[in-house]
Specification:
two-stranded antiparallel ribbon, 4 strands, 68% helix, elongated
Length: 300
Amino acid sequence: MVNDNSKTVEINRLKSPLKYDDYKVYDSHGNEIKGVETFSKLQYVIEPDSNILSDDEILEYAPNSKEAAKVRLRRGVGNNSDVMLIYDSLPWIIGFYYTILICIAIPVVYGGNKSLMFFVLILAILPLLYLYYIFNLKQYVDKSAKKQVKKSGFSTIGSTQENHESEGLESLKKYADEIEDLKASYDSKESAVRKLIEKRFEPPQITYERFMTIIDKSHGLFYHEAESALNITQLAVEDTPRVKNELENKINTLKSIIDQIEDLTNELVINISSDDKSDDDVKNLVDDMENLIDSVKDYK
């Protein structure tokens, strides 16, 4: 049986920022994190231990992980993006497969051998059948999951409606992509500023504690706003001016936090390199960050 301490450790691991070292990415426990690469972006996501956390906890603390995608599919609220997350290497495999197949097919077609042409045709169809199988979302749902979906208040009237709500509007996808890019940028800059703070103010100095506390608060604010904005892109049924305005406001908040982190990083670099170790400018930046956090009224 999993104890509360194990859960706490795992949750803290998921919530902690990633560490970058020698072009590799690690979690707070020093485990290397493999990137999930698509045609448009590369992202690093900490995978939760499903033997420690419940499905609900996985969805809460690691919503972008493969395990979370599996949970959503089992519950009948997943979509094609979840399937692609689980089979992230599939596009590259299929691309390589068809490249080889085309190289084989060209001489076969010129040779005019009908038996071989028929065989090549079968080989061309097989991946399509496999794709049809894995993108059949109904196959992932089990009976117990359907009951959980009903209790959770999700609609079970037709899979088309569920998929539409989960995927979100195509017109809002650009906002979701921008938010994901901002998350990657923030993680990188936050990791850098933490290292600089540790270098400039060694613990247990009061200044060190204050700086780390404000960075932790910035992390919480950033991800609260990011997840809130992503929820809007996934759940909105219309791209009304109000919806777009809310998304733009949240994205501007994310950019402001990144700008503050970047300014603090630059000031720390200058401060460390300077003979004059005055902390006034650095502390002023931290005050600005605190004011920014306080100004976001829906921060929890």
